[in-house]
Protein 1
Amino acid sequence: MSILHTLAPVRVGSVGLKPTKNSPESEASDRLLYSQATSLATGRTTYIASPSAAGRHVQNVYDLIKKTVTHGESHSALIIGDRGSGKSTLINSVLHQLNGELDMENDTLVVKLSGVVHHEDSVALKSITAQVMQLENVVGDRVFGTLAENFSFLLSCLQTGSDKSCKSLIFILDEFDGFCHPGISQSLLYNLFDVTHSKKAPMCVIGVTCRPDVIELLEKRVKSRFSHMHIFLYPNEENYTDPNYKPYIIFRDIFVELLTLPETIKKELARSPKKKIKIKNIEAIEKMNIGGDYNPRNGLLPEEVLIKCRITMSDLEMFDSKFIKNWNANILSLAQNHNVLDALEKLCYYTTNEQIYRDILIVSKVSTNKPNIDITDICNAIDKVVAYDNGVQQLKSLSILELSLVIAMKHGVEIFNGDPMNFEMVLQRYTTFANANSSAQKVPKAVVLKAFEHLQALKIIVPVKNSDFIQSESAGSKMQKEYQLYALDVSPDTLEEAMKSFKSLPTEISHWYSNSIV
Amino acid sequence: MGVLGQTLPPQGSRGNLGPWCLISRLLFVGANNRRRGSAGRILGARRAGMRTHNGMLSYVCAVCRLVCYRPSKRGTEDGVRDYGGWAGDTWYRRGAPSKAGGPRSVRVCRSLKGKGQRPGLAANRLVDTVRQFQFKDLIASVGDFVLVANADADSSKSTAGWDVAQILALYENLDNKRDPYRAKVRWYSRPCDLPAWCLFYSKNIAFYDHEVIEDHRPFDIDVSIETFRIKCNVLKMYTDSNPKQILDQNINFQFICRYSLKAISKRKGHLEPVLEEERQLQTLNISNKRRSTLSPLSRFSTPESLIKEVSKISLSEEKNWSVIKNGSTKILLKKAILKDHNDKQSPKAQKSVPKIVIDSPKNGRKLTKTGIRNILLELKENSEDELPTLIIKHSEAEKEALYETSIHSNIETTPRRSSRVLKNPVKYIESPTKTPEKVVRKRNYNENSDEEFTSAQTPRTLKTPKIMRTPRTPSSQTSVSRRVTGSARKRLNTSLLTPTLQKRSHPVEDNGWIRDNNSLPGRETQMDTILYFIKTRLLERTRVPGTGKTATVCSALEQLKIEPDLPEFQLVQINGMKILSPRQAYVEIYKQLTGKSVSWKQACILLEKLFTTKANTRKLPTVLLVDELDALCTRKQDVLYDIMEWARHDAAKLTVLAVANAMDLPDTALPARVASRVGLTRLTFQPYTHTELKRIVTTKLTGAANINADALELIARKVAAVSGDARRALELCTRTLEHASGTAGLQDVSRALAEATCSATVRAVKSKSPAEKLMLRAVASEVDRTGSEETTLSRVLSAAAAIVALDGRPYRVATHVRAPTSSQALVICQRLAVSRLLLIKPRPGDPRIILNVSSDDVHYATKQINIKDI
């Protein structure tokens, strides 16, 4: 949502620039935006933004895979981390790094499975077969008769590589917990771990999961075959013992690191100063930086980032050195600003998740008229993430009648100690209130019922199937909707908040709300 | 053979012989010259090798030479199993497997011999002989060469999988209801099918395309006639002759034979020229003829004290008398000697009963119905005046020979007086009995029987005492290798692909610390137990994972395989976790036995037939190793039931070794009907102790592993304290070595331990943000307070508010001290629920929240929740 939202002001047409067809800059920026948007939306970026956090783990995984590839050893490991903590990013970056160093294409086969998709053995098998099916001796059009045949064939394939002359296999099991649900058989895991254990084909099995208790889900015999190597990707683990540790300092560093523009572009630009600056591209670059990891010291963007963003270095040459200087100075000043730091601290209180933080940073609104990010942009973005209450917004959008019904129901719930109410009960409370206040407009019952149904459609009230009423429901025909029992799915706090911020609320209603019992 | 022991039925009364087209019967008298020669052939034929077992059921009809025969047992005995194939496999595929008996289209022509042809012989025995038979289109007679359908062969026209055999004898076994038409054959192998050791001494022989080798390896020579496919021609040649001309004529099914394979020992053999061999044999036979054939008997001394009486002797008026040994075998001898005596000496009724003694060792086995083994009948004429004595001997060798396939009891009738009729000993070939469990003994017997042969055939002076024609059947090991090499030919139609992985382009650099060796320290006793049990019993082994169950069984089996005193056995290994569904176990077993893939239903039927058919001549005993037995449990438990049921059958020769983790598997998971079949033999594998673990690690580590003793001790003790899992210990070792820069010390161990023993939840909780920690703590305190694991969000929020009130402002710019709002709290809880620290059950208004980690962990991990004011 947020990405689409921010895309709008940047779109070429919307900022009033001429969408000329042969303008390479606009095309490049579009492509850049698109690729960044997709890569961010999928949460899969090529590089880890803060290598400090995960550097040790990167080295671990790197060693593991490299040993599998070069030495023909077999390993298994489990990467555990919260959502958005960069597990897949870590693996991808390691694979990418190894791709540059080793002859991965000829020496390895990377098989990626996801526990969400391949939760059944049959599906997983098909996928493995498809991914490993560059297996030698396998005719392309070979159709396995049965699943069992497929399975046994695959197993025997995996067991052939005892002479270590075959390619190393790297199994990456995303959403590892999906493979070991208690209901399903864990034969896939058993066999994979068995191969890693029995020194057959060189194989590295890496499970990726966000459940710390995943090891308890494994069967005993599977657990015994697993190497028990855990790699925890929990943020800021090193800093627990540090009394001066302040998470928002880290967030500030990330802020600076991600948003500053590289200096090298400036140097290159010095050689070709005639290029025009397209300010609209600022955000593109900004986003790219969020997605990518570059070393600010040498300032060179990795080539892979450029390829992934489908731009070349020449596209970056359009920036003016003066602009880059201004931009960087602004970012640095923001990082020193108290308001920003307070906002960051507030964010840190609620979450330490870096992925959420990045999503916040991308929300900053930049346009041709407003070339720099300012403080309110960041604070608003953080506030929205931290304190945005959908329930309050929903309640604020209700009509007066609907809100009255909610209040009536809340009172009823208070009186009946949480018991569900039906429409007649709510109506009775509402008419009592309406009769007591002459100013309140009289509405027919049908209209009230309609409003009640609207509340139901908004899931503010939810029907209750109480065990006492199941009998009557099953025995008779459908219960009349006036007598269907409902529970209020709004917490009192939310309603309180909504009442406070409700615009043009009649005083009678607010009075009725605060003096709860009529 | 019920006809024995009865008077000769009238010619017309043979309707009870069923569909057989009976042409004639032979009445024939005990000994003659021809019999000796042919006896030699039969005995020789017993040694003849075969690549594939074809005879499914057997029956012997010797031509003029079998006096006593018990065919019903025979079929189950000659258990020489070749790779991939099984007895009667072709049979199954050819006919409907469910149809017991199969096609009955064998037509046997019997020739009348005996009185007409040999008027000189007294008609004292009645034997069915078959000289010729017709089966479908095939008409063949004794001496012809035929192609026999191999187990591996498909029904296509290709002769590739068919074996060449020479018919030595044809007979009918009425006891074998399913497949009564049997033949004795001599096998001829193709050079490409010979194992490498056969050609060890003669590597330089160039074989021709259509060349076969007379195979004297001890295969089963008793096959069903219905496996014969087509007649062929084998031309025996000198080794230096050039068969080009014959082969160039391109006649169908023309083979040449230049060599015959003699097996010296289990894995040794050499080729001899086939014709020369024949000549030698002939000369030997001639020289043998004059000599007394008592030579085999001379081996068995018969202490008088051991002589016992036969259970029953019936003497009939018709001058036939029969010895009934506990009713199991009837021996009918028309006693010419007796007659002579009676005629000469006692014109009145015979007074003295011929003395019949049974000579057996002291611990002589009971002559039970199935227990009759190698019995030597010796008929002795004591003197002119006395009646002949029939001595039935349990030979000394019988102890070893208990479990052999075909057992000959030689009845030596040696009249002192130059008897007119019985000049030569009568050979009994007794049908085998079988005790499938005691496979160990089989080999001994084979050697023994071979010795008997040599002694019987060769004069004592020429006797080479210790040339053991040890039975050599292709072990499953060689069969595997053969399968690989010869698979191209065999598997043309199966279109099975060799499963391989892609070859890598760069060689691996091996710096492994863990050595591959098969030593299993700490499991010596279990190993011994397995070695002991494996021969006999169904064994179930239960223990926690990583205690070396599978490894112990496997290495025990390996050891058994190379042990010279043991017969070959077939190892079938299935793993409950390596098959998709329990029923695939049938397919897997069948595939490993025969190399063919069928559907599980079919496999079940075929295996059922294979294991439960009594008369089925399976060649090798099978050891079935079922790993992860509990994975084979289904709701109906049919798979386990079937396997256990097969193992219970004597005919199956099936030993089941089951490996399971659950100690109480037979008691809990299995229903009574399966559990009762599992048997009580349970071998428990205790978790390794730390000393054992240490030994394991030291034996497994290579020299490259640089680890000091203290570190090793620490690893062993740590693992032994937790699980006793050897895998775990080795894993820890490798991790330690990976951490270590020089010699791995205690610090590296503790690092590895910290990696392996994860306090995942604590770390996960620690890494959470303050608000998340607050919620967790609130939930934990709520859980502690109420005592139930489940709370609601509103209650958690009020608890959180209390905590926050104590803790102060959460962050500097916080407007007021309060817990997160309910929507914030819900978001936080949902985030925690993703990592399964909490579980959320949605409920209108107030979702239920369940703490999924221990509250102690939460309290410990959230101690530093305070965010101090700046």
Protein 2
Amino acid sequence: MEHSGSGSGPASWPEMADVVPMPQDDGPSPVVPIDYRDDFREVMDYFRALYFARELSARALRLTVEAIELNPGNYTVWHFRRLILEALGSDLLEEMNFVNEIAERNPKNYQIWHHKRWLAEKLGPDIANNELEFTMKTLVIDAKNYHAWSHRQWVIQALGGWEAELQYCNQLLQEDIFNNSAWNQRYLVITRSPLLGGLAVMRDSEVDYTIEAILANPQNESPWRYLKGLYKGDNNLLISDDRISGVCLKVLNNDWSCVFALSLLLDLLRLGLQPSDELKTTIEAVKNYSDPQMADTDLVTAVCSILQKCDPLRVNYWSWYKTTLSS
Amino acid sequence: MGDPELARFERTHHVAFFDAMAAELPEDYASQEVNHLTLAYFAVGGLSLLRELERVNKDEIAKWVLSFQVHPEANDDVGNGQFFGFCGSRSTQFPLDNVKDPCFNGSHLASTYSALAILKIVGYDLASFDSKALLSSIRKLQQPDGSFMPIHIGAETDLRFVYCAAAICSMLDDWTGMDKLKAQEYIRNCQSYDGGFGMVPGSESHVIHH
């Protein structure tokens, strides 16, 4: 295999002069071959040689940088880099800065985030603030970057940082009340922060917060989901909190076709909510708007029928749901 | 935008695309080379879905896929923590002489899943496949919380790899490699307050995890 040392590749590095590059062995009958560029081949041939020799050296470390540039998803290269860092006793803070630069250009690469976690584990609680700041910057660019959220959740739980997290969620939701990732993070903080006392303690104020969000934007699905989530595993409390059915009725009085309100009402009724007169009147009114010809039925069936009309995307689901109602 | 009635499934274009990919992957895919087997799975799978599998040499493909399998040495302790599955690419595959060094065994759950899927598609009889080491070592990748790590040298653990492990066990019709109860527990823990599933416990529910 010719190695022209095309420009700046490792074949032209003086420190690599004694290394015999190891070509890729594609096997007897390669299928679905990749048309590698020469510079890619060159770097990987040198990587293979050093990896196979288990050479945990400074020059190997430098080579991994080249390999990572070309192929940031190659977990073998990252693994080798970690072995070298440990063998050389490298400065891990510097390494974190290095990987952050790469992460900025490859924000959705699993190996990079895994490397960050490995480093953060070693650096300990002192690095928590840096990691929170880095994920925050990543989320400014892409509010839904799953890796950033995952890393942030891990950092807070493993290294600390609960103190400012609820405020961070408040800020994100102020900027965009539709940000479901922020609602999800809020749920994590409310339920798991050792500083807040747990869901049972936080529930009351959270219900008020969520209802305010619903009333501001009833078409926003996130707070509806969150509201129900606040009562997860506690159906009795859910149906006995007047505010829940209250917000459904309030919304329906303004927008009779709001699917989220109707569907939550349906859930409440199925869980045993005793319908108030106000509820019955509201459903009657909605029935008249949605299908004046609708036959007289019980409340639950009526709401189901209304949903079949108001939520055409899920008409099959509501039809099926109807069949589960006991006669 | 055109009249939606005129929208057609351009079958010949799709076939041509997959056929071309199966013949050779352009250099842009070099940065995905660790997932070489998975890319092959997409190409072969695509052709299969379009009923155009005759365009590829199925025996050659099976032979090629099997060449990625990592076998333990005769007296290797299969329970030593290494996973004996399939590497995803030649770049993570090293000469078998040194397979004793766990660093040189690049077996990966996603590659293994892709490998078995390709073998099934091209009609290879998985019953004749030597899966003993694979099934007994896959268990080593399962974590105390029920999730799976994809590779024994260390990597992120999440729901994707529970799926890969389950698919592998299902295709081989042998579930000894997985503690199903623990896996179920992990899956349940991935369910978000909104009913959907996230990738790890606590994370936002995401369509791809359902």
